[in-house]
Amino acid sequence: MFSDFLPLIIGSIGVVLATSSFISGMQLVRTRKRSFEGRIHRLNGYISIGLFILLFFVSYIGSGFNMIVLLLWLSGFAVILMKLRIVKQRRWAFKYVCWFGVAIICMWIYIIYTHMPLT
């Protein structure tokens, strides 16, 4: 019973963390100063990536191996890595990171939608 809702709970936590990280990240890009909010933003990112990987393994164990599903998970992880690369370069951070942040939020919403039990 609880295992049916575990991916939904993980996805819900992920979308909340991604949204708060998006908002705090946009504030950090504008200020460019190191602060306590920056540490919280970084912690949100690490937890979000960890939840994404955990949800991948829960999905993989629950449904078995499927090449198309694996490619979708890898493409989602590629979006996260691309966002991190853009942020590290700092030159394009404000211009492009908001698009990737919104893409990550949409990705978490899609994860919630696909793991929602319909019974």
Q: In short, what is this structure?
A:
The chain is mostly helical and 119 residues long.
Principal-axes geometry comes out as: elongated
| Number of helices, counting only DSSP H or I runs of 4 residues or more | 4
Strand content: under 5%
Structural class: mainly alpha
Show unreliable segments: none
In round numbers, the mean pLDDT is: 79
Instruction: Note the main sheet.
Output: none
Q: Nearest-angstrom radius of gyration? A: 15 Å
Classify the helix fraction into a percent range: over 70%
Order of helices and strands: HHHH
Count of beta strands: 0
Number of domains: 1
Euclidean distance between termini CA atoms: 11 Å
Describe this structure in words.
This protein has 119 residues and is mainly alpha-helical. The protein has one domain. The protein is 87% helix and 0% strand. It has four helices and no strands. The radius of gyration is 15 Å and the shape is elongated. The N and C termini lie close together (11 Å). 19% of the residues are buried.
Features:
single chain, 119 residues, mainly alpha
What topology emerges from the helices and strands here?
Elements: H1 2-31, H2 36-63, H3 67-89, H4 93-114
Helix pairs in contact: 1-2, 1-4, 2-3, 3-4
